[in-house]
């Protein structure tokens, strides 16, 4: 009888501690715990409690969405992310727009989110997920084949960014929009700038080589495509292990152009 009573006391005490921890501990402490167990049922359950207790606590809705978005369950993830955006738009519009651009290929949705965010921060240049917002807007328009608006956004990037912060990646995107607008000389200059700023990227050499091939400048194109292949084999290219990036190249693309360039060079 004594042991039964003791077990009951211990069991009741443990349950009290668990209930207190789940429902009454400081919300920031519970947020940290839930974050540490992200992706597990316990984490989502703890976030669900926070969502009910603190319906205006946008950070908890945002963090709850991450586990779903990471595994591609965007329908579930966006239920919580949309709530976070509704509560704190300046904080989370950029992240939602970036997801739409990078993973969902919802370029119209991404443009809408980026434009809204930009309008809410008129004296500040936003960098959703670490990328200049005008570059992301340009990429979204370009991916939609709206090169006129893409170039307008890229010009905003150039006019609002210190030259010391220019990246080769940007000039690769900018060059492609110029090329698709039949502005070949400007595109070539942009690709050259990309190579100058970051010569250890297969992509920069690749896009410059393909444009030179189009312009029948086979000698330089041959050198660049060989460099591109060499760098690609060393894993020096833009890629994501979970997702194909906008303008991402692969080895098959390089080899195809390499053969075409070499044939054209030999004929010449």
Automatic annotation (TrEMBL):
Keyword Phosphoprotein: no
Keyword terms, alphabetized: Membrane, Repeat, TPR repeat, Transmembrane, Transmembrane helix
Pfam families according to UniProt: TPR_16 (PF13432), TPR_8 (PF13181)
Ranges for the TPR repeats: 131-164, 168-201
PROSITE patterns in alphabetical order: TPR (PS50005)
Transmembrane segments: 6-24
Stated name of the protein: Tetratricopeptide repeat-containing protein
The organism's taxonomic lineage, starting at the top: Bacteria, Pseudomonadati, Bacteroidota, Flavobacteriia, Flavobacteriales
């Amino acid at each position: 009888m004594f042991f039964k009573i003791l077990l009951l006391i211990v069991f009741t005490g443990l349950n009290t501690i668990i209930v207190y921890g789940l429902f009454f501990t400081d919300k920031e402490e519970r947020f940290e715990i839930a974050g540490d167990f992200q992706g597990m049922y316990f984490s989502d359950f703890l976030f669900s409690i926070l969502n009910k207790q603190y319906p205006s606590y946008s950070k908890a809705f945002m963090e709850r969405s991450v586990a779903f978005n990471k595994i591609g369950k965007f329908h579930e993830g966006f239920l919580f992310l949309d709530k976070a955006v509704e509560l704190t738009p300046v904080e989370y519009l950029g992240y939602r727009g970036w997801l739409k651009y990078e993973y969902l290929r919802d370029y119209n949705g991404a443009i809408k989110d980026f434009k809204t965010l930009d309008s809410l921060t008129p004296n500040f240049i936003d960098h959703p997920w670490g990328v200049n917002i005008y570059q992301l807007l340009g990429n979204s328009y370009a991916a939609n084949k709206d090169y006129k608006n893409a170039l307008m956004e890229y010009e905003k990037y150039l006019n609002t960014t210190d030259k010391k912060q220019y990246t080769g990646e940007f000039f690769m995107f900018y060059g492609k929009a110029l090329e698709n607008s039949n502005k070949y000389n400007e595109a070539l200059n942009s690709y050259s700038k990309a190579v100058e700023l970051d010569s250890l990227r297969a992509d920069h050499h690749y896009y410059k080589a393909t444009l030179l091939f189009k312009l029948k400048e086979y000698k330089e194109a041959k050198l660049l495509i060989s460099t591109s292949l060499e760098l690609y084999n060393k894993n020096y290219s833009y890629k994501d292990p979970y997702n194909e990036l906008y303008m991402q190249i692969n080895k098959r693309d390089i080899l195809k152009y390499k053969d075409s360039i070499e044939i054209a060079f030999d004929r010449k």
